[in-house]
Every structure is written in structure tokens, then in C-alpha cells.
Amino acid sequence: ALLSDLLSLLTPCQKLFAVIEQPCYFTSTFGVHFSYPTSNTIAQFRLTSENPAFWYRPSESLLVNYEKEVRKGLFASAASAMALVDNSRRVAKKIVIDCYQNKVEQMFAKDEQHIFIQNLRNFVTHRHILQPDWTVHYSVEGRYATFRLKSDVLFRYKKWEPLAINFIEKNKEGIDIDILFSTYREKV
To answer: What residues are paired with 145 via a beta bridge?
Structure first.
């Protein structure tokens, strides 16, 4: 009832603006948002792994814990991204907004990243939990630690849609989980 009361106060233009152009307004008004739990864990891993002692055997359990948390976060991130899609569809059925479906199709229907995350959610919820590989890169800019999904592991799943396959193939060195979900969050 609260949602319908709030929606009744908005004009169709405001609804369209709130839902499509200003997700932060939609979030603050209706309490719907997408967050990805892997972000904090990966940031902590980056900091902690700078200490040389982190890489010695006594700290092995800490590394194992980071890996476990990233696995759980990957599962939760993929699931919550698609839950947001499902909730948006439900809201769109209750609120008639001109051009909503066209905008969704324009932004997401042929978006390789979106289709990849959708297929990834199916993979991790119906097949098995993925074990992302961690990598530490050293360059002139400095040190950068990432967790990546490697294409050879991803291609064990045989139900990728063509756009998801394109996305995997474009990321030959693996898909950086943090970049995957942070850029997706910007879209939604």
C-alpha cells in the first residue's frame, strides 16, 4: 500500500524520470537498489595483501577466508542484480510508464554485460559456485590486486547466450569481478 500511495503522487513524467533516468531518486523514494557485496572484501584484500607477511603460511587461513567471502559475494551480487531486474518488472506492471519497455530494451536487451550477469546468475545458482582467481599486478602505476573469472572456467558452462559469450571473449585475461559489478551498478 505504501508503494502505491507514493506512486500516486507522481505524474507519469516523474515516474519515467524516477525509474529510468535517475535511479538514485528511485532508490531513495522506493528503497530499491543494487549493491555488490564483493566490493568491500576485494578492497580489504588489496590492502591486506600489501603486507609481505600476508603471503606466509601462518596467514593462509586469512587468504582462504577472502576467497570464500568473494565466492559468497559473487553469488549474492549476481543474484541481487537479477532480483533488481525482477522487481523492476513488477513495478513496471503496476505503473504504466510510457516508453519504459523501450528504454529497458534499448539499455539492457542487447547489453553484453547485462546478459553475462544474467547467465552468470543462472550458472552460480543452478550449476555450481565459481572460484574466482586472485591476481596481483605490478606496473609503473603501482600494485593492483583483483579477483577474476577465467574464461576457461566459465566456458565449462554450456548455456551461455551469444552476447554473454562475446563478453567473456572480450575479457581474455579474465573478468575482473569488482569492475564487472561496479560498472553494472552505474548502469542500473
So the answer is: 136
77 vs 49: CA distance, rounded Å: 23
- Judge contact between 108 and 34, C-beta under 8 A: no
Please state the rounded mean pLDDT for residues 34-61: 83
**pLDDT tens figures, 120-176:** 999 998 888 888 999 888 889 888 889 999 999 999 999 999 999 999 999 999 999
> Is 149 in contact with 175 (CB distance < 8 Å)?
yes
Among candidate residues 7, 165, 175, the one with its CA nearest the CA of residue 95: 7
Residue 71 · residue 123 · CB < 8 Å: no
Distance separating alpha carbons of residues 4 and 124, to the nearest angstrom: 34
Apex CA 76: angle with CA 186 and CA 172, to 5°? 65
Sorted by sequence, the CB contacts under 8 Å of residue 164 that are 6+ apart come out as 112, 115, 116, 118, 119, 120
In this predicted structure, the answer to whether residue 178 has a pLDDT above a threshold of 60 is yes
- pTM summary value: 0.76
**Which bin fits 99, alpha (ψ -120 to 50), beta or left (φ > 0)?**
left
